[in-house]
Amino acid sequence: MTESLAGSIRFLVRSGTSPLPGAGIWTSINRMTWYYRGYTDSVGSLIVMDAPLGLNYYIVSKTGYNIATGSANVPLSGGIQLNVYLTKSLSVMSADTMGSLKIASDPEGAQVYINGGILETITPVTITNIPEGDYVLELAKDGCRSATMVRIDRGQTAILTASLYTK
Predict the structure, then answer these.
(1) pLDDT tens for residues 87-131?
(2) Do 11 and 71 belong together in one domain?
(3) What are phi and psi of 14, to 5 degrees?
(4) At 113, which helix (H) or strand (E)?
């Protein structure tokens, strides 16, 4: 009998007591390379079937909500369930808390998503007047995806370049 090298994580995403469909989920084992896992369904659920055993980090985001991050230990016995709660975002928009984000991709022309919400823009692009904070940035083109966390600091321009080629 061969032991499985992966387990499962069932994410149940809520806002208060209500299910939160459409929340994007990313996982990582090293917090450097993040893998897009999909969006929660109508009952706020998403099951990651190929989660490596041991410590897994996660990011859950949805436009209009604060990002939730954490970690989970996937046991040898197979799977776990995580209840993740997102709170509504209360951004205060003032000039002294804004920053910018310069995004490039290879190849150019990738669709840009921030915190799971699609922007009506493609790379290369510079986005200004972004409230200070942490964001999940995803780029997608021709079936290739790249996701990462990016920090926007007031008065600064964060720069991100992503390669979107299959390996």
Answers:
(1) 887 655 555 668 889 999 999 999 988 877 777 788 999 988 788
(2) yes
(3) -135, 160
(4) strand 111-114
Where are the alpha helices (H) located in 91-143, listed in sequence order?
none
Which residue's structure tokens are 């991709």? 105
Domain span at residue 106 reads 95-163
For 16-78, list the strands marked E by DSSP: 18-19, 24-28, 35-39, 45-52, 54-61, 68-74
Q: Read off the amino acid at residue 152.
A: I
Judge whether 59 and 34 are in contact, CB under 8 Å.
yes
The answer to whether 14 and 86 have CB atoms below 8 angstroms apart is yes
Angle at 61 between CA 55 and CA 63, to 5 degrees: 175
Residue 1: which residues within 8 A CB-CB, separation 6 or more? none
